[in-house]
Amino acid sequence: MTRELVQRMGNESAPVIIGSGILASISQHIRRANGGKIPAKILIVLDEAVASTWGSLIAQSLKSESAVGVEIAQISILSTESKKSAESWAKIMDAAVRADLDRQGMIIAVGGGIVTDIAGFCAATYLRGIAWVAVPTTLLGMVDAAIGGKTGMNLPLGKNLLGENRLGENRLDENQWGKNLAGAFWPPSAVISDTQVLTSLPPRIFRAGLAECFKHSMLVDASIEPLLACALATYSSSEPVDQWKMIDLVTRSAAVKLDIVAADPREANQRMLLNLGHTFAHAIESQFSSELLHGEAVALGLVAAATASAASGRMTVTDASSIRDRIAALGFSVVLPHSATVENLEKAAGFDKKRVGGSMTLILPKTGGGADIVRQADPELLRVGLRSIGAVDAS
Are 112 and 293 contacting, i.e. CB atoms less than 8 angstroms apart? Predict the structure, then answer.
């Protein structure tokens, strides 16, 4: 019960293996990704939530099938945006030093997008780059975060940069972060996605991944969208999850991103399309990271982007409303958790990585599918989108 895609970035390629129950034999895939052998020294970076379950299974598989002398170290981190930080980066780097990893060593990241992002960044920066393997344990990780070679961590936004926080106070809120402001393109040697782990996710975590799938359906493959409600219904019922259907959903959605990445590995142009909804989402996360999951912020971002697109004439008002309704039907909120000002969110959006020379780039969906990369976008379009999800103008 396995499907396989290929991640291509320039001259480099790596397998993306999607199946059910494949973690028990993960050592075979690691061996294949590492020239036919298990690395002599491995550091497994784990999401605390899966350390005792899937993390233990992976370590057991590696130990049982590895050659004598293979050393495996483990470290766990809390999977929250505030922990996707320089502090966690330093903690993982210290663990790599203590494990005595050399340039033939490997980091294996086991967890959601936060863990694969920061563990991949550690792999990119340790000894100027060592191999790593991504083992995403969330739907969002499988279809988006773990593929494409982007790694990174968040940086705090100071009060002189952001202004008042959402409480109206001119001080730094501990939850205000610039999303992925430090990072590197450093693709994993393999991505190993076991859909069986999705059955152990809390419903909210599973649903969060559907936002990225919905984005891919808007961009390229409309046939993905009918699978979303089906997956959510199946996941929420007491019936056993149809693993073939889950594998199909992950494969189709991941293929959209992989095709775009292959055409533009370093985000010079076309890859920017994958940021549909994300300029809004990252601004939202800077204010609400303790209350919203990344996928929930993306869902809000897609609603805002559709409204902004309608204001620009690229999408009809009817189609923008339809996107809002379809996202809500998947169980996502389409308004912010509570009050936030347009001005503060706009300042946070100013840290978006797609900006050039101080001008903002927006990715706006089109009626009929696809999206436009709008460089030097009118700031009012950003404001219109933010107002559509409940942001208010400062009085």
Answer: no
